[in-house]
Structure formats: structure tokens, C-alpha cells
Amino acid sequence: MDTSQKRSKRSSAQADSPEDQGDVDGRLFVGSMEKGMRVLELFNEHPSTLSIGDIAQHTGMGRSAAQRFVYTLHRLGYLSKDSESKKYLPSLKLLGLVRGIHRHHPQRELAYPLLEKLARETRETVSWVELDGDEVVVLLNIPGSHITAINLPAGSRFPALTSSSGQVLLSQAPQAQLLKMLDALPPEMRARFGSRSRSEVLSIFRKAAEDGHSFTEKNFGDDGVSVSVPVTDFSGRPIAALNISTVRSRYSIAQARELILPRLERAAREASI
Length: 273
Description:
By secondary structure, the chain is of the alpha+beta class. Helix content is 45%, strand content 18%. It has 2 domains: 22-95, Orthogonal Bundle (Arc Repressor Mutant, subunit A); 105-271, GAF domain (Beta-Lactamase, 2-Layer Sandwich). It has helices spanning 3-8, 31-45, 52-59, 63-76, 94-103, 106-122, 164-169, 175-184, 187-190, 198-211, 253-271, and strands spanning 79-81, 88-90, 125-132, 135-142, 157-159, 214-217, 224-232, 238-247. A hairpin with a 6-residue loop joins β1 and β2 (88-90). α6 (106-122) runs antiparallel to α11 (253-271). Residues 1-20 have low confidence and may be disordered.
């Protein structure tokens, strides 16, 4: 299944998501643009350089079509071509789009010094995380200074339901939406809830709403501990989560609750409008 097909199945909680807009209007939808975006998205799944043949294979396009899209993206400056291997990779021009995303979200930009301060104080990995459909995505990240720090580079994605950030961001979501997302989880992701029933899983989100935070373990390996607190807008709606990821060899859940959570809550209050 290609990236565009995966994303079309995400049930988003955001107002402007494709799912909220109903069926695709064939009179307005530009299929060639969708294919071009599919080429760019491919590099998120494959960090190495890709040949025309690789791109055709992974997107399901014919080689001739893949070549035309790659040529166009290269001419526009969004793909670079390695002179020796003749393979392609994303160009630095794409970073301009990332800058534009951040520029239109000043609350996120203003929070960066808070993340830096939090990382200095705790020496742990600190992230600004937002909801994107059925997933959460790391948009800002300050790596921890420990050798065994959790690595969460910007752009990292995780299933929302099983992550502490997703649990606080979905803590006000309707029950029907949560159940739909739960039913859509792949078996290996559903296994993270263990033997919990559907009602017991829903109680995790109610607890996150009541507590104003969420803890999870084992999302980054058997030693992982993650804690998240929501950042809200002027109406009190969660728009992001501040997350600290550590390891149990340094902090048990009880220790993280005592030593990390208060700092995280303070930073989230300052980041909220």
C-alpha cells in the first residue's frame, strides 16, 4: 500500500482533514498532483537515494510516468540528483515549505525556548507533538544529553492511541471516534493495550482528561517511559502535547511523576495561550 493510500485511511480529528470533506470531487481533484506528492512522500519512507526504477516500483507508476514526475520535481528544485549514482533525493528547497509551516503556527515557534530550558533542566529528550489523523507527529525536538537518550527526530510518527501524546490530544475526542481508531489499529499496535477491553481502553483517555497528563511505557523499547501534557489554545482546546521521553533505568513512573511531570506541566502552561 503506498503512502497516499495509507493516509487516506486516517480518521482525523482536525477540521480540515480530507476525511471531513467527504468523497473526493473528481471535477476538482488533480490526480497528477496527487502522484507528484506521492513521489515526494516516498522519500519519507525510504531515507536512501532512489532511482527512477525504485520510484516506479514503490509508487506503482509506470517507469515513463515516474520519470516525468521526477524530471518535473527536479527541474522545480524539489529533488536533487546525485551526479555519480544518478539517483534522487529531496532537495534543501523543501525546507522552505517546513519554514512556512512553522511560520503559520507562532505558538509552536514561541514554545521552542521552553523546550530548550526543559531539556537543560531534565537532560532528557523533549518534543512538541501534534495530532495528524490517527498518528502523532514530532514537530520540534530537543535531544537528551544522555548516551542512552531516546531519539525522536522531527517528523517521527507514532500511532496516536498508544502514545502518551496522542492520549492527551485525544482526551476530549468523542467515544465513537476513539472506537473507530481502535478498531483500525493493526494487531501489533493493538497488542500494546494488552488484554484491555474496549471500555478499558476508553478509560485511559478519560483518565488523561481528568489528570491532564498521560504516561506510557515500552513505546521505545522495553525500557522506555514517556510522559505528555497538553498545550491549549485560547479556548482550552488541546492543540499540541509537550513530551518528555526517558528510560526506566533513570526514572520509574513514580519518579517521573514526582520529578519530571511538574516541570513539564509548568512549561505547557507557559506555552498555552
